[in-house]
Amino acid sequence: MKIVVGLSGGVDSSVAAYLLQKQGHDVVALFMRNWNDASVTLEDECPWIEDSNDALMVAQKLGIPYQVIDMSELYKEKIVDYMFAEYEKGRTPNPDVLCNREVKFDVFMKTALSLGAEKVATGHYARVDSTFDENGKEIFHLLAGKDNNKDQSYFLCQLNQDQLSKSLFPIGELTKPEVREIAKEIGLVTADKKDSQGLCFIGKVSLPTFLQQQLKPKEGEIVEIFNDFAEFHTEKPQFSSKLEELQFLSKKIKYQKSDGKVIGKHQGAHYFTIGQSKGLGIGGHKESCFIISRDMETNTIFVGEGKNFPGLYQTALKIEPSEIHWVREDLRLKNGESMHVKARIRYRQTLEDATLYQFEEGLYIEFANPQSAVAEGQFAAWYLEDELIGSGVIS
Q: Is the pTM of this model over 0.85?
């Protein structure tokens, strides 16, 4: 089978290519040059050139064809502009999820298939399987990677059945140490290369510096909200229906400056996110202060002291109808239906017990335990056992 591997210059995709070659497939390596702005990368770093060179050396070592494709304009349009727009609105985007949906498994995949490939492989720690329904239709399953510490199924939460049908994740059954061991055994240059810590499209980068390229500083006030006020606003009244309860539990508290005390200044609410504690420059507290809300109209940041501050938690969230995505369309809920699942609202978060409730006005996720730092713009993903079956943007 002819398979195109997205060779990134890291150890994971390198070993993915090797494993496919070992299985006897006709493997072709494609390296994506992503949008890059040297003015925001960290000092002495030119990530795409270094990664491209490493990918080339891996391809040469394996003896497979290698090609670079320039996707910089697409990244700028689909991911970078989206990211700026989301932060400006006071939301917290996840560019890695969008990168997979809009670029790697869309345009990149189409490019690979146009080269005659039957499948496209990446170095994600995830698995794909399939079964047949009673009508003989093949259903594809997106499964968590075997390595719990590296499972990347969350980043693939917006993929659809067609994309999964053409996807391969060769290292999904392996742990990270096993992947590095294989790379060392066959002498790959990427064997000891550190994992990328940067954003999906620009490598190592200072996020505030990156955002300041388009979002200009704007001084505003930091207001501290105190425990008694937050507790009062999180007390549950009596509800006449489940929908009414979910509407209450998922609604963001709208704080006013008069609700607390001004304790500092900041350079722009759009540079911060819910749950953030670093970079605020706040002193004089026994515990760290965490951002619990942002008012983009008045450019005000509201904080509470301590990671257990009540205003930092909520037990339910809402996903608008247009933002609901089912990887498993056959499991899509109808209005009035519910489903017990495991869910997470960010990468690496432990899966939490939750219940989905579908109503005409949207999908609600109610967690068994309160969740910290639920931020608009993030993706919530839900699972049945180790299968990711759907996701959506938190409103």
A: yes
